[in-house]
Amino acid sequence: MASQEADPTELPAACAGEAPGSLGEAAAEDSSAYRPIGRSQNHPEVLRALGAVQILNGAVILALGGCMHALQNLSQASNYFFLLIVSTGYPIWGAIFFIVSGILSTLAGKKPTKTLLETSMGLHTSSAVMALVGIVFLSMNLFANDPLLKGCQSSWPPDLCIYMEASSNGLVSLMLILTLLELCIACSVVALWLKANCWHLRKAISSLSNPGESRMPPNESKEIQS
């Protein structure tokens, strides 16, 4: 009977260089728990740690957005500096994406089921996109502060405008750093997920491309080992 064969060249480019596993390892895996984050037992702990950082990161961004909104309502002079980032609503929807991604990472680290891990990967991809959008908005806000300072000084006391510009630069810069951190975390989780799935794919192809080894009689396998 002709056995099925798989062409290793059909592997994605991202899987190149990954070492294939043995057929025995593939058969020994528990089908009830889907663990595509690699062979190391420390990966669930890494997921939980990254998830905790994401939750804290999102909470701080949300708090900074609240501070910006409060300062904007406190003085109309601050409208010159916080208008862009507050009007886009990034501190709200960006923080919500990051917090939800962190919660799913924590849950996936505790119970790495297929549904949780695939949902977490999708949300981390979305979080990375949201972080990129947030970086654009925050950078535009920073670059616009210097020209807006002149417009503020023409209508308000110069000292107040300078104070509001310094507050804006500090809060926006801190939010930008946290957004960059979120981008790094989201990309790292997605990269780990893709790397581990390539490893599982190579294991499956290895077991299909070498069917004779698993069907070899015990006596012949002992002679080859000797």
Automatic annotation (TrEMBL):
Membrane-traversing stretches: 49-71, 91-109, 121-140, 172-194
Membrane-related topology note: Multi-pass membrane protein
Pfam families in UniProt: CD20
Matches recorded under InterPro entries: CD20-like, MS4A
Domain of life: Eukaryota
GO terms under cellular component: plasma membrane
UniProt entry keywords in alphabetical sequence: Membrane, Transmembrane, Transmembrane helix
Annotated localization: Membrane
Entry similarity comment: Belongs to the MS4A family.
Protein name: Membrane spanning 4-domains A3
Organism the protein comes from: Bos mutus grunniens
